[in-house]
Amino acid sequence: MKSCRNCLLPESVPGADLDAQGVCRFCRSPVPRQREADEALRLAREADLEAALEACRGQGQYDCLVPLSGGKDSVYLIHRLKNDYGLRVLAHTTDIDIGEVAWANIRRAVDRLDVEHVTYRPPMDFYRRLFRWLLMNQEARGAVHTISYVYAPLFEGNALRLAVEKSIPLVLAGYSPGQPVAERMEYEFPRLAVSAVDWTPPELKASGEFSAADLGHFWNPASFPAGTRFPRYLAPYHAWHYDQDETMKKVVELGLIGSTKHASPVFSNYPINWLLMYSDLRNFGYNPYAPEFSALIREGKANRQYWKLMGKVVDFITLKKIYLGRHVAGHMKWLGLRDEDLRINRPSRRDWPDFVYEDWARNAPGANLNAAAA
Fold it and tell me: 124 lies in which domain range?
């Protein structure tokens, strides 16, 4: 498969539009004014983040909660919050489909950073039925989007519940730039999304396959008493300068992760991601994470040479179901699925209702800069 000679974006990605020289549309059309607006927006977010980190101090037993997945970004985030900002951090992990490397990273980081750590172990049968139904009923954007944007709200909701229970004013997630998709979150979950919207996916309600107890695992602010104070949910890497390679090096230098290999997202990611990549590679012909990493390469936040090699390796072992790609076969067996069951049969849906998007556009840090750039 051909890919952009600059950012490695596969030609089969919609909108890539490689020219005769092998350069994609995004690399051909740099927009200096947009770059200036992006930096101004980042600075506005950074100012908001610094104010939030200062304001959270001393409100309770903990200043902030960090969802800890065992990847480099969440590990390094806890380090910065505790050691650079002097905050009292509570780490939180939802124990579902976390791989051996990620668990080793979690144990090592919690010990080295000496932070309190809460683990929640949800019922596995619900997750098995959930993953199986979603993979057999994928939306138009494919397996990664279908699963991730149902799975992520579950552990995000778990973090929010714990923060409410312990009166923690901030949840700070280690999402790198480009994560999650912009329509869900840019720097902060919309305040109304946290305080006024039931996150239960409507397609699960309509399916008739899930009980009220199953659906009760999703975040729903209406289940809390009137007057409940909900935390803000921020992504600091959307505000700070971010460099993927530098973060990988730092966590190893600090002894928080044992090796650069274990700091790589290829090795520390959720094992089910291999099945999701497999499904999307078969259905779309390109790795669903390629656009995200290509964007980081264009922005100077990821190493082109590393991903030029690793991208090909990941696709090969995924399709062949070997090495780390063995998780494809393992998860298909766990879920009772065959290749032909990995089906796209639903249109895409929006994550939030219109009133949330409208409020978000008005009140997000730097919203006026977004409007000016548009």
Answer: 44-288+321-362
